[in-house]
Amino acid sequence: MPENLLKGKVGIITGALDENSIAWKTALKVKEQGGRFVLTNAPIAMRMGAIKELAEECNTIVIPADATVVEDIEKLYAEAKEFLGGNFDFLLHSIGMSPNIRKGRSYGDLNYEWAMKSYDVSAISFHKMMHVAEKMDIMNEWASIIGLSYIAAQRVYPFYTDMADAKALLESIARGYGYRFGKLKKVRVNTISQSPTKTTAGTGIGGFDSFFNFAEALSPLGNASAESCADYIVTMFSDLTRMVTMQNLFHDGGYSFTGISEEIMEQFKDL
């Protein structure tokens, strides 16, 4: 990758929990490419991870914020702008959580209060972040906003339950706000649909290992790693992708467009 793709650019990276997370890898890649940023996560998530260590490595600060609370987002943006010295060129929304999945509730037995929490944390927070950014006029022209999605937004994966609905909503918000922000300030809004990835959140889903291996066998390039996703995010933050907006971009080694593979067929040939 060319050097200094993000030189002079500043922004916010949400959701870095530990060294396995996509947001964590993205922070390191953004720093490597000359970008500056503030890290943020919900206070409860910060107690579970090691985000302060990442901040030290990246010469930045952590500003706690609950992305479902508009007042927290306003405070985050104001403090980040003061630290970074200007408006933002990029935002990464790497936030997702489902109490129903954590507690083993099936799609036909959802706790609806928990489901609403899933939608608020995993999708509506994306809208709130952009709504506050618009209201505060804190995005520079040609800025790039990315949300992390998953193919279950468009196809049925029974184990993904209400998170599939949340990701579908996330992608819809990206299109809706992508149009709005593009007209207002040439700001780009996209989602990236990543391979199953061995993050703390991903491995907490029942049957993850089996599906990870299935996707690996189906994808012609294999599963995309968290680090390669971080590279893709950096590219989307850069000026090289200025005319890409309102898209859900598959970053999955070709899984999303592969019907079947020889490896999968081999497992069933004698049945």
Automatic annotation (TrEMBL):
Enzyme class, first EC level, given as a word: oxidoreductase
Highest rank taxon of the organism: Bacteria
GO molecular function: enoyl-[acyl-carrier-protein] reductase (NADH) activity
Active site: 150, 160
Annotated keywords: Fatty acid biosynthesis, Fatty acid metabolism, Lipid biosynthesis, Lipid metabolism, NAD, Oxidoreductase
Pathway per the UniProt entry: Lipid metabolism; fatty acid biosynthesis
InterPro entries: Enoyl-ACP_Rdtase_NADH (IPR014358), NAD(P)-bd_dom_sf (IPR036291), SDR_fam (IPR002347)
Coiled coil regions in record: none
Reactions catalysed, as given in the entry: a 2,3-saturated acyl-[ACP] + NAD(+) = a (2E)-enoyl-[ACP] + NADH + H(+)
Family of the protein in this entry: Belongs to the short-chain dehydrogenases/reductases (SDR) family. FabI subfamily.
Gene Ontology annotations of biological process type: fatty acid biosynthetic process
Pfam families, per database record: adh_short_C2 (PF13561)
Name under which the protein is recorded: Enoyl-[acyl-carrier-protein] reductase [NADH]
The protein's Enzyme Commission number: 1.3.1.9
Binding sites annotated in the UniProt record for NAD(+): 15, 21-22, 95, 167
Keyword Lipid biosynthesis: yes
